[in-house]
Amino acid sequence: MAQIELRNIGKKFKQEAVIENLNLTIRSGSFTVLVGPSGCGKSTTLRMVAGLERQTEGEIWIDGKCVSDTPPGLRDVAMVFQNYALYPTMSVRGNIEFGLKNKGVAKPERERLIGDISELVGLTPYLDKKPQSLSGGQRQRVALARAMVKQPKVFILDEPLSNLDAKLRSQMRTELIQLHKRLGTTFVYVTHDQVEAMSMGDEIVVMDKGVIQQADGPMAIYGQPANLFTAQFIGTPPMNVLLQEDMHALGIPAMPGVHYAGFRPEHAVLNPPDGTEGIMLRGRIATRESLGAEQIYQLELASGALVSVKTFLRPMETVEWAAAAIPAEALHAFDVRGNRVECSLNEWREAAGGGILTAAGAGGRS
Amino acid sequence: MTTAWDKLRPYGMVAPAILVFSLFFIYPIFYMIYLSLFDWNFVSPDKAFVGLANFRELLADEDFRKVLGNTSLYTALVVSLTTGISLLLALWLNRSGWFHGFVQGAIFTPHIISLVSISLLWSWLMDPEYGLLNGILGWAGIGGLPWLSHPDTALLSLVLVAVWKGIGYNALVFIAGLQSIPADIYEAASLDRSRPLTTFRRLTLPMLSPTIFFLVVINMIGSFQVFETIAIMTGGGPVNATNTLVYYIYEYGFRFFKIGYASAAGVILLLIVGVLTLLYFRLLSAKVHYR
């Protein structure tokens, strides 16, 4: 259990600044996920916490101690690498034991710890094998066991599931969540996969271009995205964003400071029944995808803008033109810089209110 | 339906290679073995069959035993020094930066210079009276060494030249080997609190073992066949102190024209190198390959 604090962290590679003035507090015992597109600085941040990369500016505190100048081995952190980074020259037992040996743990104690851990992750039959002879999932477990056996204060995981196939990945996802519950240790997890972030994290840090866009719980990230980047990064398909002219065409009232209106594809109702309230839009169905339980359509509006609409457990629409209703409460507002507008949001939503769809004309305000 | 042409075509395709190989590799080997059973002076039309007499004479020859001893000592020294020094150099050079790049280029240069030029160059450097080396030693107040002119130092001087020429190439191969070790393994080790020496012993060295093994064997085979430096710098002297197997074969074959006797020595060299090569391939297949 340990809180991690990053204070005014900056990182330059040669002359290029990757991260500037980053401040972040990772709650003790939390499962914090750093997520963002590749090159956003999330792995660099993680590696600085581990001590594998030296920050150019600022301080890192773990459990109330400044570790800025502490070598990785003495920070009491353990890491699981993307490619596992197992020692190919040692058996599974040797891999798990190496850190304990270097720490000077006595042999009987080592034996006991290795026994417990390998029981926990199901590696007991493979202890004397070399990692090369194991499958991807088993190697992943060795990497986990090697990290866990040291009983660190902080667990660091750098895209640990990206080399596994889809089925094993979701299985390991569940196991990691359970593991976190059982250990109660602080987990810091890096991924570029927003589904992984949403499903595992109790705290999500969305990053882009070395800057934290939002740090919040998963539902807050989804429900109240702090800016356009978060809004469009989390959720598949991403949030639809309407420009001012589109807003005008759809009859959404102008509000000072609001430059973009957004709504999630799953909140729009496709071909709504008569009497549905909301903002109506009408367009040609440009593409349709079915994932079985859900269907995703792209509507091309009169202005040429594309809008995604998602339906659940409904038959595929075959018509060429379709209407969609957006409930006013599902609207998000963003200012000219793309930041969320919160003040007088409810009044705006009420004003946007929308019409009631009539059989005569979808898209018109009654 | 397969025609005769379909069956013959593959053989036709490989025939040129087989022909060249047979003519320049297989035939000379068997002809050498054949010649080792005769007494022949290279020019006379008739060869006298002597059976294994050449081998008996060879094994009884004091000089031949001395030559074998010289060759083995030379090989052992060159292989251990070249491999050891290049490994240390590679560990130091395995990082970026203009200075490291420069040193790497500098130590590689001897590899691309002809051995004959190198031999002449070092003969001058090692000249006891006017050579640069003794000049430096004298200036440093240590006093000169006899280098190539004394039986005690001549072989060691040749070892020095061979090591100097070999380390660039060997270090380059070692650097390639080091760079093939993934960086995250070292990061994992640093998180596991591994000390540098432990990391080297438990991770680097075992992961380099295929490279080390490869270099040891090719250096051994190369050293057993040393010739140019000896022919140019010492001529096998003084008092046979630097006479080695290939030079011995050359002298008996092309200076004393005892072709049968030289061939018998050649057969022994073939056996030694053959055993080394076999050992290499056997161990290589049994060797653990990481990854």
Describe this structure in words.
- The complex is a heterodimer of chains A (366) and B (291).
- Chain A is of the alpha+beta class and 366 residues long.
- Chain A has two domains: 4-232, P-loop containing nucleotide triphosphate hydrolases (Rossmann fold); 237-356, OB fold (Dihydrolipoamide Acetyltransferase, E2P).
- Chain A has helices at 42-50, 92-103, 107-121, 136-148, 166-183, 194-200, 218-223, 228-233, 244-249, 345-352; strands at 4-13, 16-26, 31-35, 57-62, 65-66, 77-80, 154-158, 186-191, 203-208, 211-216, 240-242, 260-263, 269-270, 277-290, 294-300, 306-312, 321-326, 332-334, 355-356.
- In chain A, the strands form four sheets. Chain A has a six-stranded mixed sheet, with helices on both faces.
- Chain B has 291 residues and is mostly helical.
- Chain B has a single domain (58-286), classed as MetI-like fold, CATH 1.10.3720.10.
- Chain B is built from twelve helices and two strands.
- Chain B has a two-stranded antiparallel ribbon.
- At the A-B interface, strand 6 and helix 2 of A face helix 8 and helix 9 of B.
